[in-house]
Design goal:
The radius of gyration is 20 Å and the shape is globular. About 5% of the residues lie in helices and about 45% in strands. It has a six-stranded antiparallel beta sheet. Strands 4-11-12-13 form a four-stranded antiparallel beta sheet. A three-stranded antiparallel beta sheet has the order 7-6-9, with no helix packed on it. It has one helix and 13 strands; from the N terminus they run ββαβββββββββββ.
């Protein structure tokens, strides 16, 4: 956290005492502030073209009701895209911070999302990420914090899709366990 002492050019606000606290008031805690650190971004297993920055205070302090994270492209790898998939969640909101990405959504088709674009993705909407710029960065907010995802793999021999459900568990916003839940033909 930046303070006036650390940032002498910051304007100082006049001291104003807090009014009496209502019964529903909640105190802020130091770990609710998540500054960017050199190791904040972690590689995404099986997807080297992007790195993930968990924002664990969201899941922790919402009691698992919500999760938030930042994904950014890893410029050392070419974005390979992702298969058709859908997240079994209630709310999925995204804001493109930098660069661009090409997505395909069931219902609207291909959409190029540029920096500054915000979008709400409906629950259980099948989609895929096709391409992204080397500087792509997105902030995502999801409810609940943990949820299963169904991936659709095309069988080249039969021409049919195979659906596999994966449940990714989180603890305090950190990915802790990935479990294959179900496979349907």
């Amino acid at each position: 956290m930046s303070t006036t002492a650390e940032n002498p050019t910051a304007e100082t606000a006049p001291e104003v005492p807090l009014p009496p606290a209502p019964p529903e008031a909640t105190l802020a805690k130091p770990d609710m502030f998540m500054p960017l650190e050199p190791d904040s971004f972690k590689p995404i297993a099986g997807f080297p073209a992007a790195d993930l920055r968990p924002l664990p205070a969201v899941a922790k302090y919402s009691g698992g009701l919500a999760n938030a994270f930042v994904i950014k492209a890893n410029p050392e790898y070419k974005w390979q895209g992702a298969p058709w998939h859908m997240h079994h969640l209630n709310v999925h909101f995204n804001y493109i911070v930098k660069g661009w990405a090409l997505f395909e959504f069931e219902g609207v088709g291909k959409v190029r999302l540029e920096a500054g674009t915000a979008f709400y993705q409906p629950p259980r909407n099948r989609h895929r990420e096709l391409d992204a710029s080397s500087d792509f960065e997105v902030i995502a907010v999801e409810l609940p914090a943990s949820y299963p995802t169904t991936f659709y793999a095309l069988d080249p021999e039969t021409g049919e899709y195979r659906a596999t459900v994966i449940d990714a568990e989180t603890e305090g916003g950190e990915l802790t366990n990935v479990v294959k839940v179900d496979e349907a033909g």
